[in-house]
Structures are given as structure tokens and as C-alpha cells.
Amino acid sequence: xxxxxxxxxxxxxxxxxxxxxxxxxxxxxxxxxxxxxxxxxxxxxxxxxxxxxxxxxxxxxxxxxxxxxxxxxxxxxxxxxxxxxxxxxxxxxxxxxxxxxxxxxxxxxxxxxxxxxxxxxxxxxxxxxxxxxxxxxxxxxxxxxxxxxxxxxxxxxxxxxxxxxxxxxxxxxxxxxxxxxxxxxxxxxxxxxxxxxxxxxxxxxxxxxxxxxxxxxxxxxxxxxxxxxxxxxxxxxxxxxxxxxxxxxxxxxxxxxxxxxxxxxxxxxxxxxxxxxxxxxxxxxxxxxxxxxxxxxxxxxxxxxxxxxxxxxxxxx
Amino acid sequence: xxxxxxxxxxxxxxxxxxxxxxxxxxxxxxxxxxxxxxxxxxxxxxxxxxxxxxxxxxxxxxxxxxxxxxxxxxxxxxxxxxxxxxxxxxxxxxxxxxxxxxxxxxxxxxxxxxxxxxxxxxxxxxxxxxxxxxxxxxxxxxxxxxxxxxxxxxxxxxxxxxxxxxxxxxxxxxxxxxxxxxxxxxxxxxxxxxxxxxxxxxxxxxxxxxxxxxxxxxxxxxxxxxxxxxxxxxxxxxxxxxxxxxxxxxxxxxxxxxxxxxxxxxxxxxxxxxxxxxxxxxxxxxxxxxxxxxxxxxxxxxxxxxxxxxxxxxxxx
Lengths: 317, 317
What we know:
2 copies of one chain form a homodimer. Chain A is of the alpha/beta class and 317 residues long. Helices cover 33% and strands 23% of the residues of chain A. Chain A has helices spanning 48-56, 126-134, 173-183, 185-188, 198-209, 216-220, 223-229, 238-260, 274-286, 298-309, and strands at 7-14, 19-25, 30-36, 66-69, 83-85, 88-89, 98-99, 106-107, 110-114, 120-123, 141-145, 150-157, 163-171, 267-270, 290-293. In chain A, the strands form 3 sheets. In chain A, strands 3-2-1-4-8-7 form a 6-stranded mixed sheet, sandwiched between helices. In chain A, strand 2 and strand 3 (30-36) form a beta hairpin. The radius of gyration of chain A is 21 Å and the shape is globular. The interface between A and B is large, with 54 and 55 residues.
């Protein structure tokens, strides 16, 4: 919470499914926030001006800079903000900022990299959370951002101590879970439950993290059908078993990936919903890693840093 | 084709999506076949008697035994025929045969096994194809049956030379491809094409078979989005790239699995649609394995063998 209450920046985390706006004070403190189900997939016919007005409400009257991150800057969003190739110094990310044609909004670009097979990978929005995290945590960072597309990122200080994103990797874990649950035979035997079945989740995570070959995942997920079929898993626990298996497989792969990029594997930062962060924390712990969860307003903190770098705002304490 | 034309058996391959009936002569030769979109998922309110009549047409008049294999014998089918636990001598499979309450049909049971993680696995229908194959091919067999759920099976002669299914493994490759194409972000950039893009398919297969960690598949599939996004893959080739990757991952895992079960890895038998068998043949060849495709009526041949074993029919040449 800020020591003063004058708004210096409107910071927007505008993604595919939802949009969130923060009122940020001139010392970088978050004063207030608003959200709406106005993710870019819900905005029809390019009506972003109207969506922005609806999200901001009376904050529209505030004559302060507005800086957004996330899919609003993608080809499907308002205006495309470029991808900055990896490795990238966090201090240089502000150079990707573009402005909408009507001047309504500044938008941060994303980051691209080439993976170990020379295939492109992208993040958009997560980089801003990492800027916010790096402003509050020193040294090398391994950051995991679970979600529809989970992102693993390694941040390392350069020789001058300035943090640099050296590599990142996307895992389609959340979307994979969703399509298997909603559209495959695995979902047909699943019934709802309100709380996590930790035992079933761990059973899946142990299996997923111990698989011997990549394609073995295509076999192991079938257990989410056969185990309930043979009365060896309750139908209400099957979703948690599958979730554990997929996250376990991701964490095992992510650990190998992070080691190749010389990240320390003793612990990781988690940024995401509390439900997902808790699931990842359990699996990381299973693999001997500690986990710390970043503050939920870390994107606003990152946007503040980027606005400072871009000269959109100046700090006053 | 048979040397005589007297029907001795009606053989039915009755699966989830479709049903096929064969008229088999007393020397085991297939005389004729009929099919209908009357897979068990299309049969409403347990109306299997009517579905059978519709599939058989005027073959209903034939007073010969009727033997079926496939999901018609599952819990969701007409009557449940039991799973026989692995390893199982092919000569003992006939013991799983049950009869419908009204005597309309005999149905072959499936096979169950425990995988390397002690999780149950099942096949139902594929075992009958393998019986048919074993009647025409000697020695140890590695059989791959691609489809919605691809099955790998190792058949080894016991000390008396009688073939035995020692292990099998299910890979949800076909269903995974379908749900990703139809319901995930990966499908959104895919456009149709009428023929296989072999280069894109091979590119995916090389990637899928070379992955280093199980969960790496959750990362690699994201290439089916980023490659077209960066104009490095044509949207009309993306489906073939993803198909190649998933089949490549399956084949790499299947080879490791088969080696653990002491199968020879120089070649494999393929049983499935010609389109799928060709894709698997390409990937097997990429891995240094030859492939032979079983005759399309191999299920009818297997049902004939099982009918002989069960004493439902007697051979006359």
C-alpha cells in the first residue's frame, strides 16, 4: 500500500480471458484495482476503446499515463507490440512499448526465444510480472507461471548485476488438462469434488515426474480411465490424479530444462492463481524444491518499473 | 477368398464407432462383409437386438453361430465379457466368450495387464486381430494397432511354441491429436489440406521422437502454434506436424517399452486404417524399423480361430 494517494499511473494487465486495472501512486504503491471479464477474446469487432472505458469506469477522468501488458498487445489484440528476442535485459523491455493509434494506451511487447530444437517460443504479459518480481528479489531467479500455458523463466544478473531473462519455456499443461477433462474419454468418468484430493494428486505427480520416455505420457494418462474402471481410484479423484500427472511431467521436464540453462534448482518463484500455485508447490516440494509465491499485484509493480524506464512517470517518494 | 461358399460363421467386429459383419466359410475364408455406423455409442437405450438385425440384414436368416469382438462386450456394450489377465495364451482367449441373454450373439472378452507402474491397462477387440495375425505369422510378433487409442502388443511363443500375449501398452495418441486439433489453441491456426505434407510430418516426428523428458511433450506441441505464428510452418501443414510429433513420441516410447519386454525391434506389424498405417510406417522407418500391414479382414480371421477354439464351428476343407 502506498504512502500517498495521488494516482501517477493506470497499470493494466489485459489478457485473453480477463482484464485488470490498477491505480498506482507516485511511489509505485498500488492504491486500488478493478477487473472485468473483458479479456481480448470477449471484445467483439475490435471495440477496445469501449472495453477500456468499461474497465476503467470513472478512472477514465484521471489524466495520467496508462500502460498495459498482456495479450492486448498481440496480433489478436488492440495493436501488436513487438516481441523482443531473448536474452533480454529487463531494463531494455521498455523499448518494446507501443502506443495505440488514438493514444488511449501504451502497451508493453512480449519476448521471443528459440528453444533447444530451434523452434520459436513466446511470452506476453509474464515478462512484466518478472520485471515486478526482479524489483523485489535479487540474484538469479527461476520463475514458474502456471496457467493455461505454464511458463518457466530463468533470470540471471549480467556481469554488471543487471537482471536479464536468459531463457524461458512454455508448457501447455493447463490447456492439456482442460481439453482432456472436457473433451476426451478421460473426462467421462470424472465427477466433481470441491477440495483437492492430495493423495490422488500426489499419486499422479509421482507417476508423471517418473516417466521414462516423452511419449510415455500418452500412455500414462490412460490410467485416468483404467484406474476408476478397475475401482482403484474414485471417479471424484480422477481429475486430481490427471492434474498431478501433467504437472509432475511438466516439473520433471522444467527441471531438466532449467538445469540446462544453469538455473539453481533449490527453489522457484510461483506467479499464478492461489489454487494453481498450491498444486505446483506440492509438486516442487516432491522434487525437493522450495517455492515462494509472488504478490498478486506483481504485474502492476512491473508496469510501474517499465513506466519509469520509459519515462512515462517519475518516481517521487 | 474361400474355396466354398457355404456360410459357417457370422463374425462381427463391433466397436465404439462402427460395426462390421463378415460371412465366413467353413474353411475360414471370408466370403462377404457388411458394415454400418452402429458402433455402441450410436445404439440408443440398449437397442442392440435391433442394431444387430440392421447390421446383418438378410444374413439374419442364416442359422450359423455368431461371434463378435470389440466394445460390444464392454460395460457400455450389450453384455460385459470379462478381461483375461496378461500373459495369456492365444489358445485360451476363447474361454472369455460369453453369450447375450437372448442367445443372439457370442462375444469375446478383452485382455487386461498391469503396466510398469502397476496401473491397469486394457484392450478389447485388438486381441482378436492378433489371434488372426498369429494364425498367419510365426514366431515373436510386435504388433502396433494405431487408432484413437493406439495399442502395442508383444506376442512370444511359449516353450511349446504356442503364441502368448506377454504384454501390451495403450497410447492415447489419436484421441490426443483430435482434442488438440478440435479444442485447443493449436487447432485455431490449422487449415485443411487433402494430402499428407510428408516434410512437415517428418519434421514433427523427428522432434517428437527426440524429446528428452516426458513433460517436454507439453512444451514441444506449442511449436504447432509458434511455428506458423513466425511464418516458419504453413498453417495447412500444422496438423501434419503435430500428428508427426505425437506419433514420433509414441513410437520412441513404444520402442523403449517393447525393448523392456524383450521384443525384437527390427520390424512391427501394423493393423489399422491405411492412412494411419502409412503414417506409422513412415515413423517406424525413421527409427530404423520395417513395417508390414496386416490384411484388413484380420479380425474376421481371428474370430474364426476363436470360434474353432470354442467349438462353435468345425473346420472343413
